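At this stage, I put together one protein's amino acid sequence and its backbone structure tokens, which the following lines show:
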Amino acid sequence: MAATLEFELVSPERLLRSEPVEMVVVPGGEGNFGVLPGHSLLISTVRPGLIEIYEAGKVKDRIFVAGGFAEVTPERCTVLADEAVPLPDLNRAALEAEARELEGRLHNSTDEAVKANARRVLAVIDAKLIALNAATAH
């Protein structure tokens, strides 16, 4: 059996994952980084994108994260995510409809706070759609 490290994914609501993995790829603030057992110490921001969990040398699971922080030690990778959604749970049609609604709100509103919130949510929706497109390309 291949060496493993403990992977934990935590959202504001709950612990989503806690399992041994061969490797995990995290969308870091400076680019994607892979974590294997024995990795050096690292703390990184996490940008919106896909976490890929590997087993037997292949991607076992993909989870969209909307941002957050990652802490890596030689034995563990912990991601504290602002939001985390398993890739199969993302609904392209619902995301596109929500994006259209937000674009309308952005266009019609004069309230800067409403516009700023709409831009923030729209950026996450765009990242989810990009993640779906990337996953279907694999």
About this structure: The first strand starts at residue 5 and ends at 10. The chain has two domains: 5-87, 90-137. The first helix runs from residue 92 to 108. The chain has two helices and ten strands.
